[in-house]
Specification:
The protein is of the alpha/beta class. About 50% of the residues lie in helices and about 10% in strands. A hairpin with a 5-residue loop joins strand 3 (about 240-250) and strand 4. Helix 2 (about 15-30) packs across helix 4 (about 45-55) and helix 9 (about 165-175) packs across helix 10 (about 180-190). The two termini are about 60 Å apart.
């Protein structure tokens, strides 16, 4: 270890100007041969001759050798003259050809020996980026395509107020426009069309009652067909003088809103009305799982009696746990953000007039659902009926276990 340490010290030792001068003078006087000096001081021959050159111009606090100093100055001036000659030649060619800065291989840049791009631009008083700048050619077809895409994005965002850039991108691809999500995001941001969600929360469930409740039958259940699981829930809609309430029934497979009821009273009648209309509309047969929260509207004996009469299997969420019915909660959130909040209903008649249009003509028929691989519920149910596509398989959200 000590030997290695000594070698390391020798490799990094320094030489003072006085010692360098003594070594060079010894070489010049002929007292020692170059090989002897290299071995004695453990230096390379190239370093020795470099010191000799520096000695000749007075680098080691010595009087410079006149001939050597003169030769060194001549070499320096020759390099400067050569550099100025190249720059002068470049400026002449640039002036004669009116230097084109369209690209690196421009004709006016050929035939000059000045290779440095930075120096060329410096001489011309231009930024280096100007040398690489290339003007784009006007393409009427590209401009027309760009404007068509922009117009279509604006139309989609006006028709579907809750559409984010991902759904807009998918719809544009269905319409045959060659775009990606980054371009759509940029265009929607430039036009101030980005969807901004409003988050509100109001409790409409009263689970503090003594009515019978049922266990959760859909936790982790694979849903592979329509009319396998129906989801039910209630939400409120604010109007000018109070609230009205919406009770809806949803198919868990296709995400289609089967039927719904609107009322200004939060009692069992509104949920029972929606259920009866859904049964008449679908006639699902026995064995369908009906899942809801534990509210009094769904635990009422009249409501559960109707379910049992038609062969439904009753399932309920855990107490105070909205995640057990997350799919339905998400549907009601979408309905509020994309229709209720922007329509500003004044009366219950406004709700009954406008809400059906959104539910039937937009949400079920046209709106793209990310959970359905960006397809609409009506499209999915038609594909299932025609057996052109295997039904998707989904696992309903499970409760968060402690």
């Amino acid at each position: 270890m000590e030997v290695k340490k000594d070698l390391a010290v020798k490799q990094h030792r320094g030489f003072s100007n006085e010692l360098k001068r003594q070594i060079v003078e010894e070489l010049i006087s002929g007292a020692s041969r170059p090989a002897q000096l290299c071995r004695r001081h453990e230096i390379a021959p190239s370093l020795l001759y470099q010191w000799k050159k520096q000695y000749s111009i007075g680098k080691f606090d010595n009087e410079p050798v006149k001939e050597a100093a003169l030769q060194h100055r001549i070499e320096k001036l020759e390099r400067l003259v050569g550099k100025l000659t190249l720059e002068n030649e470049f400026l002449k060619k640039a002036y004669q050809h009116k230097l084109s800065l369209q690209g690196k291989n421009g004709k006016s840049l050929n035939g000059t020996e000045l290779k440095s791009i930075s120096r060329r631009c410096e001489l011309m008083g231009l930024a280096r980026s100007s040398f690489y700048y290339k003007t784009g050619e006007f393409d009427p077809a590209a401009v027309r395509s760009y404007m068509d895409i922009r117009d279509r994005i604006e139309a989609l965002c006006l028709d579907f107020h809750g559409y984010g850039y991902r759904r807009v991108t998918r719809q544009l691809k269905y319409d045959g426009y060659p775009v990606n999500h980054k371009k759509v995001l940029r265009l929607t941001r430039e036009s101030d069309l980005l969807c901004r969600a409003r988050r509100k929360w109001t409790v409409t469930t009263d689970s503090s009652h003594r009515l019978p409740v049922y266990e959760n039958l859909i936790r982790g259940l694979p849903v592979t067909r329509t009319d396998q699981v129906w989801l039910a829930d209630i939400t409120y809609i604010r109007i000018a003088r109070g609230f009205v309430y919406l009770a809806a029934i949803l198919d868990a497979c296709s995400r289609k809103v089967i039927r719904y009821a609107i009322s200004d009273s939060l009692d069992c009648s509104i949920t029972l009305e929606a259920l009866k209309m859904a049964i008449v509309s679908r006639n699902p047969g026995a064995g369908v799982i009906h899942h809801s929260d534990r509210g009094t509207q769904y635990a009422a004996l009249e409501y559960t009696g109707t379910l049992k009469e038609h062969g439904f299997r009753i399932s309920m969420s855990g107490k105070g746990n909205p995640y057990d019915n997350a799919t339905m909660e998400n549907v009601l959130k979408t309905l509020k953000q994309e229709e209720v909040y922007i329509s500003d209903y004044k009366t219950i008649e406004d709700v009954k007039t406008n809400l059906p249009h959104f539910t039937e003509r937009v949400y079920n028929l046209k709106r793209l659902h990310s959970s359905l691989s960006y397809r609409s519920p009506v499209w999915l149910e038609e594909q299932i009926k025609l057996k052109k596509e295997e039904p998707r398989q989904a696992v309903l959200t499970c409760s968060v276990q402690p």
